[in-house]
Specification:
5 strands
Length: 490
């Protein structure tokens, strides 16, 4: 199968540059397939863009992942006959230099959809075409182009359920492309940085030990994760996906964010299991894949989603800006075990269960009255799966300020959420070891435990484990009053 692109005929047999970005894989890589099929020598390039305007620098956890993903990609390309070249700086300048240095006649890439990336790519494509360079872009990151799905009025979707229905009615996504059997790598000299010199890995201190123990970045790790999920946790996914105490989710999000596996491959492999995976579980998994699509649909059409309230009436919301409370939340020291377990899981492993993300988000915004953008920024720096669309859309969903948002008055009770979704306290025990010996009846509300139960468990509230930083009932009332005042002022 040939890659689908904005086709132009091949007119030169000069080298072809394949510019890798958030598509760090060989499987189902339309830009790579097109370059190989052109018969040209391939120059594989990755640019760490530090100078283009408005490009958001990856957080520390994402940089750790990126180092290992790029190292894996370089080895995979070498096994097929090509070298991955590393350059740092403004992408336009580097591509201009590389075309001049090698005489490359074409540049291929897979499209990206963040505002800064779109602006950079549009400028580069115009410049290259004006210079007579064959420049093509491909659909390798999303299952649908964000311009394709519109409401009956011709507007972008703002609510997920109608988006999902339109998405399903639009037909099956294209089939994934196979890995090229071989790549005719460029044999000339090309300037390249050493990946190790970019300093993506932490050293003093090396805080990534827990992340390294949890994850295997790279294309092989992504496919292994998918297969393990489809063969196991996909059965029972609809109900199990809300249980952080179980291995019940795919944990594919960091691999998707880095482009180590394509959504087309995930979709195709999942659909193949129809008949082996219960229909209700398969449907819910596909809906989760489509939520990522919806998030990118929103970001494409509303490019200030990560920084501005989608619902502008929230601009007047009375956030507290309490730095001490924010730091307690970041460190997992709020005194609410399910919240603290989630924040410590994030710090230790670079990831957090999605149900718990909603709980900790609601706690930050509604119990502590701290601006959702503070939470979005912390997640950006600490999540291995941070991407600008899902991160922003999800935070605004919890805040009540976004498209298809949870109503602001939906305030998660951290005790009831813990008791419902971590009923035996196994998740809390895994990440809040100071509560490990506490009876399950009290593990989500240790302040209600009898003194003898606390003594036997070795828990001293306010010392070995903090007392609650806020009273949830009082905080809930305060948040609702602020929301009502906002409505009255609107």
């Amino acid at each position: 199968m040939s890659a689908n692109s904005d086709d132009r005929p091949d007119t030169k047999q000069d080298p072809a540059i394949v510019w890798f970005r958030n598509d760090l894989r060989l499987d189902d890589n339309p830009a790579l397939v097109a370059a190989v099929e052109s018969g040209r020598e391939v120059i594989a390039l990755y640019v760490h863009d530090t100078l283009s305007p408005d490009m958001r620098s990856p957080g520390g956890a994402k940089l750790w992942w990126l180092h290992h993903a790029l190292d894996s990609l370089a080895k995979s390309l070498a096994g097929k006959g090509a070298r991955l070249h590393f350059r740092r700086g403004a992408a336009a300048d580097i591509l201009r230099e590389l075309v001049s240095q090698t005489g490359a006649g074409s540049v291929f890439w897979n499209r990206r959809y963040d505002p800064a990336g779109i602006a950079v790519d549009a400028g580069i494509k115009a410049e290259l075409k004006d210079s007579g360079i064959d420049c093509r872009s491909f659909d390798g990151f999303l299952l649908h182009e964000p311009t394709r799905l519109k409401t009956g009025a011709g507007d972008p979707y703002k609510v997920y359920t109608p988006f999902w229905k339109a998405f399903r009615a639009s037909g099956e996504p294209r089939a994934p492309l196979d890995i090229p059997a071989a790549i005719n790598g460029y044999t000339g000299d090309v300037d390249s940085d050493a990946l190790a010199d970019w300093g993506f890995l932490p050293t003093m201190p090396d805080w990534a030990g827990g992340i390294a123990a949890e994850w295997t970045p790279g294309e092989a790790g992504a496919h292994a994760r998918l297969e393990a999920f489809l063969d196991g946790a996909s059965k029972g996914y609809r109900d199990g996906r809300d249980r952080p105490d179980r291995m019940s989710t795919s944990k594919l999000s960091p691999h998707l964010a880095a482009g180590e596996i394509s959504p087309h491959r995930i979709w195709a492999e999942a659909v193949k299991r129809a008949g082996h995976v219960p229909e209700r579980d398969l449907e819910h998994f596909l809906k989760e894949v489509a939520w990522r699509e919806f998030s990118w649909h929103l970001l494409f059409h509303f490019p200030d989603l990560p920084t501005a309230n989608f619902n502008r009436s929230f601009d007047a919301f009375p956030w507290t800006g309490n730095d001490n409370a924010l730091q307690a939340w970041q460190r997992g020291l709020t005194g609410y075990p399910i919240v603290d377990a989630g924040m410590r899981q994030l710090w230790r492993t670079g990831w957090m269960h999605n149900r718990v993300r909603m709980i900790v988000g609601s706690f930050l915004i509604k119990d502590m009255m701290i601006d959702w953008r503070q939470g979005e920024a912390w997640f950006w720096d600490t999540l291995v799966d941070a991407d600008p669309a899902s991160n922003a859309a999800s935070w605004q969903w919890v805040a009540g300020s976004g498209a298809d948002a949870a109503p602001y008055f939906r305030i998660f009770n951290p005790v009831l959420q813990g008791e419902k979704f971590d009923p035996e306290g196994d998740y809390v025990r895994a990440f809040v070891p100071e509560l490990a010996k506490l009876d399950s009846r009290f593990i989500h509300k240790p302040w209600e435990a009898p003194k003898e139960a606390l003594r036997k468990a070795g828990v001293v509230l306010g010392e070995s484990y903090p007392a609650p930083i806020v009273d949830h009932s009082t905080a809930r009332y305060r948040a609702l009053e602020a929301w009502q005042e906002l409505r009255r002022a609107a």
